[in-house]
What we know:
Blueprint: H1 2-15, H2 19-29, H3 34-39, H4 42-58, H5 66-84, H6 90-109, H7 120-136, H8 142-153, H9 157-181, H10 187-207, H11 213-235
Amino acid sequence: MLVIGLAIGVLYGAFGAGGSAFATPLLALAGVPAVMAIASPLPATIPAALAGAWSYRREGINASPIVRRSIAVGLPAAVAGALASDAVSGQALLVLSGVLLVAIGVRFLAPTEPAVTPNRHVLAAATACVGFTAGLLANSGGFLLVPVFVLLAGLGIRQAASSSLLVAAALSVPTLVTHWALGHVDWWVALVFAIGLVPGTVVGARVSSLLPPARTQRLFGAVLVLFAGWFLLRTI
């Protein structure tokens, strides 16, 4: 679990996405029960996301002003999604997490071009959908927020990653509280996972500027799609 946390932290910091979504199937494969594998990574994603955003800020990459509006829209949607998760079986949540991981991989395989004209209403609706998904699957939502910020807000990829980390940290708080109240969090798993995830995120954020963006992101996307496909076949 410690190694899983460290590896995912590096990816999370470098790409601003894939933290909880990648953690769930890996923790399930490591023997963590399905519902616990869904929600237990959440406590670690909050400090990890903040640490990653701080690293971006130290490099002079500031978050966008849309962060506050995204949090205001996403928070209630995240609570609604978390409450809905109690009506879905752990096995179904694992399958949905695998599908989500495929979506992450496809997003990295496809080039993301900035929007010509930002649309606030569409952005608000998209952020609400991200919040609900984050609550349902106990995922911080960073993987969806990055393309949303690039396509609908016109941000550059690194500013979008920095902004998504801050929003993801905020959305994780009510999601965590709700899943904790539902008994979905194993705190021992969360602690060991966090010990690896937080420093890994800082390292990933710092090395992101050294990576060739297009080629690295496509390679990462291909790995995610292949892994998610294998995981779905194994789970089903």
